[in-house]
User: Fold DNA helicase from Pseudalkalibacillus berkeleyi.
Amino acid sequence: MSETKWSIKKLIGLYDEILSHPHKHEIKRELRDEDDLFLLLCVSELLGIPNPVSYYTLEIYPVIVERFHEWHLRMGMEKSPLEGIRCC
Assistant:
């Protein structure tokens, strides 16, 4: 009985892999773009854009600093372009 469940799980995983494999890069790029947009929304006040939810984004600031550091390195900037976030 348990072997049947395992094989069904394996088949579902294989099916999912077959469907997503050709679009893996597109899916990764879309997820990265969404993360970049979320990051922009979270640090928008540093750019002069009013953020109505800044009170709530303050709680996730420690996580944002790490993501922001990865982002500006990926964009080719050695140092942080914003003075409000000192990640380097």
